[in-house]
Design a protein that fits this description.
Structural class: mainly alpha
CATH superfamily: Hydantoin permease
Number of helices: 16
Radius of gyration: 19 Å
Distance between the termini: 19 Å
Order of helices and strands: HHHHHHHHHHHHHHHH
CATH architecture: Orthogonal Bundle
Largest sheet: none
Organism: Halalkalibacter krulwichiae
Shape: globular
Keywords: Membrane, Transmembrane, Transmembrane helix
Helix content: over 70%
InterPro entries: YkvI-like (IPR038728)
CATH topology: Hydantoin permease
Protein name: Membrane protein YkvI
Number of domains: 1
Length: about 350
């Protein structure tokens, strides 16, 4: 139970920690000053949402996300959100590919070549289908978490740990709702595709609570670190580099590599969600469908990484609030079926 639970936990974290999150850009867009309470609320909401999605997926033994949508909001509305999820996964995977290009620019790899490399490696991953996804996350994500936490703790140590949490100065708490909502659709897409592979209910709790606590802790530490370099963030496409400028160049290279791997895991998760849904009408091996999807996405990466995130992410955060409300109300309205 624990091994499978950790496998799904790393799949969830791998879906979350991508170009927007690991780079700091997504956290900075939603949080910033007076956001400690918002991040605590996000962790709680995230645990609830993951457990509900996985419970529905497990009970229906689903192979893609449509059965989960049907249970959450009925067949009529689920058709609308089915289209929304496809558009969302498509556009956010474009953002991941763009993030891959932006990250490799640090080591003087041309932007277009960086996007081609990450797209090609996503296609290669799907030679092993679902097993390739889960194995890759179980290997990469623990390494990324350890390095990211180490960098942030070292930075806080350098600054003398100036972290403060005052309840009377926590006015940004509504951001917890939009930030959680932003990440709902990819979670439904990915977790809805593994229902037939979850063996026990205990796996759901290990994955949900573990991922929520880890992401909540990292988010708080990361946000506090970004506040220390707020005046420099405007100068960087990737806010993490504003923190890394305090370290030797080799640390920037190491974190650039790990950031790129985080982008890779989320790009793979996006393609995985699209692939699992498109198998209803597209036949052929997984890698070939993945190649087809990447080929369509590649030209759209020219819009730029930070531009795509600053425009699309807040918009999706608001649109997804209804899905978030449905998830939070589901255990109350259907407590006997969970």
């Amino acid at each position: 139970m624990l091994i499978n639970g950790f496998k799904w936990m790393f799949l969830i974290i791998g879906t979350m920690i991508g170009a927007g999150y690991a780079s700091g850009r997504e956290l900075w867009e939603f949080f910033g000053a007076e956001s400690g309470l918002a991040i605590v609320l996000f962790a709680i909401l995230f645990i609830i949402c993951c457990s509900v999605i996985m419970s529905i997926s497990y009970k229906n033994e689903s192979k893609h996300y449509l059965p989960v949508l049907n249970k959450l909001m009925g067949r009529r509305l689920s058709k609308v959100y089915d289209v929304m999820i496809i558009v969302y996964l498509f556009s956010t995977t474009v953002i991941m590919l763009a993030g891959g290009g932006a990250t490799l620019e640090v080591v003087h790899v041309p932007y277009w070549l960086g996007t081609v490399i990450i797209g090609g490696l996503v296609v290669v991953l799907f030679l092993w289908d679902t097993k390739g996804m889960t194995s890759m996350n179980a290997f990469i994500i623990p390494i990324l978490i350890v390095f990211l936490i180490t960098i942030l703790l070292m930075f806080q140590s350098l600054k003398g740990f100036p972290i403060e949490f005052k309840l009377d100065a926590q006015h940004n708490w509504p951001s917890a709702l939009t930030f959680t909502a932003l990440n709902i659709l990819p979670l439904i897409a990915v977790l809805g595709a593994i229902g037939n592979e979850i063996k026990r209910k205990g796996e759901i709790w290990v994955a949900s609570i573990g991922s929520g606590l880890i992401l909540g802790g990292i988010s708080f530490l990361y946000n506090e670190s970004l506040l220390q370099v707020a005046s420099d963030i405007i100068l960087y496409e990737i806010p993490l580099f504003a923190i890394l400028k305090h370290y030797p160049y080799y640390m920037m290279l190491i974190m650039s590599a790990l950031l790129w791997l985080a982008i890779y895991t989320t790009a793979a998760a996006g393609v995985f969600g699209l692939l699992s849904r498109s198998r209803a009408w597209l036949k052929g091996p997984a890698w070939l469908i993945a190649l087809f999807l990447i080929a369509i996405m590649a030209p759209l990466t020219t819009f730029g990484f930070s531009t795509l995130i600053s425009v699309l992410y807040p918009l999706y955060g608001v649109l997804n609030l209804f899905v978030l409300a449905s998830l939070l109300l589901y255990p109350i309205m259907n407590h006997r079926s969970l």
